[in-house]
Amino acid sequence: MAKFAYATTTAIVFLILLPLSCSSESILHHHHHGGNSSVQKSDVDLLEFPLNLEYLEAEFFLYGSLGYGLDKVYPSLAQGGPSPIGAKKAHLDHFTRDVIEQFGWQEVGHLRAIKKTVKGFPRPLLNISAASFAHLVAGLLGVESGQDAVIRALLYQRAELKVEPYGITVAEFTNRISELRNKLGHEGLKDEGLVVPKHLGAEGKVSGNILVGDEYSLACGRTPEEILRIVYGSGNEHVPGSFYPKGADGRIAKSYLKNE
Ligand SMILES: *[C@@H]1O[C@H](CO)[C@@H](O)[C@H](O)[C@H]1NC(C)=O
Ligand SMILES: *[C@@H]1O[C@H](CO)[C@@H](O)[C@H](O)[C@H]1NC(C)=O
Predict the structure, then answer these.
(1) What Pfam families does UniProt report for this protein, alphabetically (predicted)?
(2) Is the dihedral of CA 187, 171, 150, 230 positive or negative?
(3) What is the pTM of this model?
(4) Most buried among 131, 136, 196, 230, using CB within 10 Å?
């Protein structure tokens, strides 16, 4: 029992850190629906933008599971960008560590894939200190949908367990993270917890919500602007912070930084 509680706690760590929905991959796949914004986005810009998130995810997962990141496993991928601030190995049970390490290596693959196609940019300064996770803002990562699905399924099994020391259930926790992300993103309800009011569940019939979907149970996408608002923790694509103390890189993100 104690062991299970421990495993739950460690899963919660990742609940906080992880993604509960729309992904950086959705930008890659749906960039033609990139939305209406003041910045013109070429295909190259739209392909480079997710590098910001891939760097963050790679470092986060690698450090969390192995205790070191790109500088050790694949230094050239960082293209000379600064080492992340505050990165540490997480206290994980064997199972969770295994899953997270797999995610870490997948992110390395994604970085390689993007850089094979576009020039890219060096790793931006990342702040993945524990304190910023404690702010829940860390829960705002946009992670790829497959990883998202794995984590959601793990957590759904534990939906009714209390998260120590917060005294609220896993289900409630996911709701709060989703609310925060929706609020920061300013684009309505794109993120949902594991258990939702029935009218938000699939076809209005169920309240279990392992996978997030819109009214047709289709995946939703976020524009670069929405993602920046969320990962900066500021709700404003012009105001960097949280994971990206100096802002994200690439033409799209930089065009907003210049404006202010
Ligand atoms: C974007 O929105 C602005 C203001 O709402 C509008 O004037 C413009 O035509 C829109 N552009 C596109 C490409 O939809
Ligand atoms: C990194 O995040 C921590 C926790 O939020 C904060 O105390 C620290 O000042 C941040 N560092 C930078 C350089 O932004």
Answers:
(1) Ferritin_2
(2) positive
(3) 0.69
(4) 230
Answer for the pair 249, 121: CB distance below 8 angstroms, yes or no.
Answer: yes
Q: What is the pLDDT of residue 230?
A: 82
Give tens-digit pLDDT for 51-88: 998 999 899 889 988 999 999 999 999 999 999 999 88
Q: What are phi and psi of 168, to 5 degrees?
A: -120, 160
Q: How far, in Å, is the centroid of ligand 1 from the Cα of 223?
A: 15
Identify the bridge partners of residue 244 per DSSP, sorted by sequence position.
Answer: 241
Closest by CA to 224, choosing from 17, 19, 31, 54, is 31
Q: Separation of 59 CA from ligand 1 center, angstroms?
A: 37
185 pLDDT more than 90: no
Here the tokens at position 110 are 């994604």
**pLDDT score of 9:** 44
Distance, in Å, from the CA atom of 242 to the CA atom of 235, rounded to the nearest integer, reads: 11
> Does 206 score more than 90 pLDDT?
no
First to last CA, the chain: 53
Boundaries of every domain in the chain: 2-257
